[in-house]
UniProtKB/TrEMBL annotation:
Segments of this protein annotated with the region Disordered: 1-39
Family annotation (Pfam families): Aha1_N
Protein name: Activator of Hsp90 ATPase AHSA1-like N-terminal domain-containing protein
Organism the protein comes from: Haptolina ericina
Alphabetized InterPro entries for the sequence: Aha1, AHSA1-like_N
């Protein structure tokens, strides 16, 4: 009887798509990492490309008092990531950029 019970527990079970998607979305909630990482161990995701592009766009739109504006983002490099560990989320980054700017009356 015990062997039959163990065999029944090991048997593959079909997951229907909506239930699996809902379960995965719930497990990947804010600060909890991926669905597979239910223990909350270290999980790091590289978001460097996204961070560089967002910074480039933000700097390009920057306007300061006195007519100072960014003309061109010449160089932009660095890394950014999202780390989930033990239910906490951290956002370490290191970004470096060179700007071409001007001060005018516009």
């Amino acid at each position: 009887a015990t062997k039959a019970l163990l065999d029944a527990q090991k048997a593959p079970k079909r997951l229907d798509a909506p239930a699996a998607a809902t379960e995965a979305a719930g497990a990947a909630g804010a600060g909890r990492g991926s669905a597979w990482n239910t223990a909350g161990t270290w999980e790091e995701r590289d978001v460097s490309a996204w961070a560089r592009e967002e910074l480039r766009v933000t700097l390009s739109r920057l306007r300061l008092a006195g007519g100072c504006r960014v003309v061109h983002v010449k160089e932009l490099e660095g890394t950014a990531s999202i780390i989930s560990m033990r239910g906490k989320t951290k956002h370490p980054f290191e970004l470096k950029f060179d700007l071409e700017w001007e001060i005018g009356s516009s």
